[in-house]
Structures
1.
Amino acid sequence: MSEPHGPAGIIVAQASPGSLPAASGVEIAVPAAEAHGSNFPPFDVHTFPSQLLWLVIAFAALYLLMSRVALPRIATILEERHDRIADDIEEAGKLKAESEAAAEAYEKALASARTKAHGIATETRDTLAAEAETRRKSLEADLNVKLAAAEVQIAATKTAAMANVRGIAVEAASAIVNTLIGTTPTSGAVEEAVDTAIKG
Amino acid sequence: MASGSVIDPIHQFQIIKIVELGQPGGVELAFTNSAAFMFGIVALVFFFLTFATRGRTLVPGRLQSLAELSYEFVASTVRGSAGNEGMKFFPLVFSLFIFVLTANMVGMIPYAFTVTSHLIVTAALALLVILTVIIYGFVRHGTHFLHLFVPSGVPAFLLPFMVVIEVISFLSRPISLSLRLFANMLAGHIAMKVFAGFIVMMTASGVVGWFGAVLPLFMVVALTALEFLVAALQAYVFAVLTCIYLNDALHPGH
């Protein structure tokens, strides 16, 4: 940086390390381009203007190409991907909420159906039980009536039968006595005897 | 001074004129190998980034990932150092980073010229950064930008010294920024060349030399790996420091 300008400065700088005794004489004769060869290139001020000029042009070109073309292009790609991912996540969230709502509705429907089914079953069972009870009661009543009637009839029949038995017994006794001894006993005596026998 | 033969570690930094452009105003101008490499770097970067993103695919391929990675890497560096406001300098920082990185990497190719091994180039880039800081600082904050040099909470009698120190530290920034990159690239390339030269010298001296050349060979291999690391690291350091300096322009006052 602090390199002195001008050809004279260069020659002094080169001569001082003591390269060649005849250096100053030679280098005055040769053109500047030749002299650069023995100098340390990064400190050779003669190349600075060219390097600066082309660096400015090249870097300006790079900056323009990057800021106008390449970087917006990559930014667009990244942005599109970012948006797409955000959209997809949102969509997935929406679908998840929907499916959760659907599952909840299904659970609710299932529970209400179960309750309803239970109710129907209970109701049916109660109805059927009540119906059966009624029928059983009416049947019982019916049977009781029939039983009572039958009992009355039996009692009547029995009484009648008992009455008949006495008559038959009196007749049979008088007939038996008649056959055994040839005389017919008085009906009063036979009846008395029969009654005594029935009671005994 | 190498005696003009095989081993001249300085030769690789030679500026060679390709097309002479005369001397307008007494200033020597020429299209040189350095300029050719600069334009090569610009073309390489531009074509890589556009080619890699040609598909604009949602799921990136390898090249597109690389392009996106470089974008997001620099973007996060800018955001981390200078905040979201710093993103207005993102194209500048990205251009600096990618230019320095590519220049360093291209320089690792044998026989290639390393643009960043020339002090004038790194100095120009550092000046660009510091001028951006100064100009933007004054345009944005006016004289308030000068608060950058006046640390708060310092006793009054110390203030003059502090201001002087702050000004010196500010002025030394472009120097350290440019010298760091220049010296790293220069020294690394010279070291590699010197050790590679040892191999050539030893093998030339006969059978014993072949075995002796093994050590510098290992050194060259190790140095090459190190130089790749340095090439990437210096580009990153340049970008990070640029961001930190730009942060001063955005937010003066400590």
2.
Amino acid sequence: MNAQNVDAPSAYFLAEVSDEIETHTLSLLVDNEPGVLARVIGLFSGRGYNIDSLTVSETEHEKHLSRITIVTTGTPMIIEQIRHQLDRLVPVHRVTDLTVRARRANQDKPLERELALVKVEGSGDKRLEALRLGDAFRATVIDATTDHFVFEITGRTSKIEQFIAIMKPLGLVEVSRTGVAAVQRGPEGL
Amino acid sequence: MTREMTGAEMVIQALKDQGVDTIFGYPGGAVLPIYDEIIQQEGLEHILVRHEQGAGHAAEGYARSTGKPGVALVTSGPGATNMVTALTDAMLDSIPLVCISGQVPTHLIGNDAFQECDTVGITRPCTKHNWLVRDVEDLPRILHEAFYVATSGRPGPVVVDIPKDVQFATGTYEGPTPNPATAHKSYRPQVKGDAAGIRKAVELMAAAKKPILYTGGGVINSGPQACQLLRELVSLTGFPITSTLMGLGAYPASGDNWLGMLGMHGTYEANMTMHDCDVMVCIGARFDDRITGRTDAFSPNSIKIHIDIDPSSINKTVNVDLPIIGDVGHVLEDMVRIWRSSSLKADQKAMKAWWSQIDAWRGRNSLAYRPNNDVIMPQYAIQRLYELTKNRKTFISTEVGQHQMWAAQFYGFEEPNRWLTSGGLGTMGYGLPAAIGAQVAHRDALCVDIAGDASILMNIQEMSTAVQFGLPVKVFILNNQYMGMVRQWQQLLHGNRLSHSYTESLPDFVKLAEAYGGVGFRVDKPGDLDGAIEEMIAVDKPVLFDCRVANLANCFPMIPSGKAHNEMLLPDEANDEAVANAISAEGKSLV
């Protein structure tokens, strides 16, 4: 079935799907058992799909369920394939294409956030500039000496990318990022 | 039923509770506790193979010929890695297979212990699912779940890896749950098709002027009932029907509406009908690259209906217009019922015109070959084998290559589950163990492995298994001394430079058969063929039948790589020049 029509009984009246590359955010509910992440990642590498970002953590401890958020790119046909291939893995309870859900609700995108720790080294004007820009991006300083800052910044991927790019000439040392966590807007759950 | 027992006892008990009567295996250090239970029980027959790959293919042959899951038992390390080919084969052909492997004790896992390998890691991509059992209390549940996963939805192979200490440990055994499909927490494939979709499909079929039914292994997997419903649908609609390699036998080859197999070595009429049709009903097939040829030129003007139990098969390579997710048997049942109860009817006038077009394509006689009085033509050998075995209960397995395609083209299958071949993976060495598996399940039947001289050597050791267990399988070798399909492709693609496709020193197959304790035949004259085949059938022992055939025959018709269905290379047009130029530069990089 085509992505636009996941719940419809028939895709017969669908228009031709496009061949353009799109970025989608998928949310998976899986049993938190040994090897489950390897199954998911192995599927992507084995079938030549892309992973732009992947985050995983147990979200329902009593049921041992983990939630995996994957950002992937491909044509709509490929993304449909990815969804169905993931869905047939035995420990996968549910696969939701949050991007498709958002589109159907006439929203631009699902809610997506990423956290990054950004280490910047420097002195003098550059150091002041880094601090000023950190403020502008609402980044928090969580570690500092007279020679460095570590910023904690949260936001959409584009904001993080922009912040890192700006910090580069100001003495960027290293970056650690969590990858994207995402939920659908509105009161509904998965 | 719950009671205390060891892990090894649980394995035997669970197999029996799952209705297993036969397992194929090979012992080793990490499965000794299970083997110790096997020798102390009755009711579960163990067939000792000569190589674990043989156990896997034999279990596949057993599964394919019975519709029940096949079971294999192997040890850790090399035992498990030798199973990988068979698991992958079962994965691609959707064969239900439960493989139980031994593993080093849990405290040694990760230590590079003797005969240790990461079995679940290695087999993860080639199984539907696999389990490493770390606690004996989990073992019964996992064993029953393994059978559920292997056999439900789209069937496939599973592995249960059991460390040796878990086999020795004592725990509480529990029997299978009565309804695993609803009890499973996450794996519940959809079997019933969407009613509105099926109704729409019937409407489209009734409105079709140039329809075709394109069926596959999913019909066989769905069971005899599905095959019966398919036959009913054909007689109700009058539609032409073709099938993939995996689906042969679902509809009888003698049926009026049968077009023969489609695809790379399919008939001209099947491929042309696919190309020109206006409504295609794909039933339990997956638009494999051997079927479609060039996808951008694949049946360009048709509305495509796709019935499949696996949602990931939909729109994988070919965009379809109407997908119906569900078990073929269930969907066909609804489809036949709706067709009967509605006032809809196939367009008789259009159908008449369509059939006269198809008859014109049939007239092209695309399976023709030049008969020869001095040399046995491979096609002729299969035809004679068919004529002399068709009135018996016969199971045919094959290896992979030209002989496989000739068998598919020239052996007419009337019933499902009688044809065992490695379609997706194309595993040379599949046929002999598969025939053994079928023979174990059908002691009274004639089980023939149609083989090539190269393929048969890949699992020839299983002759010893056949002799030990009194399994009179017949290996019918089309011996042309070449890896015929490799040679054919070298002729097509590489200027006929036959790099390493000739076997310079083949064994004497007659002596080889005798060395194993079987019977050997050698025939090289067409006139001697019938008599020798009859003798072969009469022998109650494993046979190697060395049928010396024309060395350089090519398998036609053929859709050359990168070409469309209507660009077939037909036998009467395939002169040396046409063969040398059949594949374009782009097509050469394809497989």
